[in-house]
Amino acid sequence: NRTVAITREGRILLDGRETDMASLKSTLAHAISQYRDLAVDVRGDGDASFQRFTEVADAIRSAGVVRLNVM
Fold it and tell me: What pTM was computed for the model?
């Protein structure tokens, strides 16, 4: 599993490293091409906006990930 975290400021962390939306999508698209059953756990700070969470979840899905777990 890969882990995506969203901070209260809206920053995106992939496996603990800060990334941007474009890099998140390309990294996950590459990973899913190597491992079709890849799952991604998404953790949002309680103060992160729902809109930001939705944007990140949409980016993950557009990368081809179908196993998306909300933590």
Answer: 0.93
Q: What is the CA radius of gyration of the chain?
A: 11
* 59: number of Cβ within 10 Å: 18
Amino acid in the structure at residue 51: Q
Give, for all 71 residues of the chain, the pLDDT tens digit.
999 999 999 999 999 999 999 999 999 999 999 999 999 999 999 899 999 999 999 999 999 999 999 98
Is the distance from CB of 59 to CB of 21 less than 8 angstroms? Answer: yes
Structure tokens at 44: 């949002």
- Under 8 Å between Cβ of 8 and 41: no
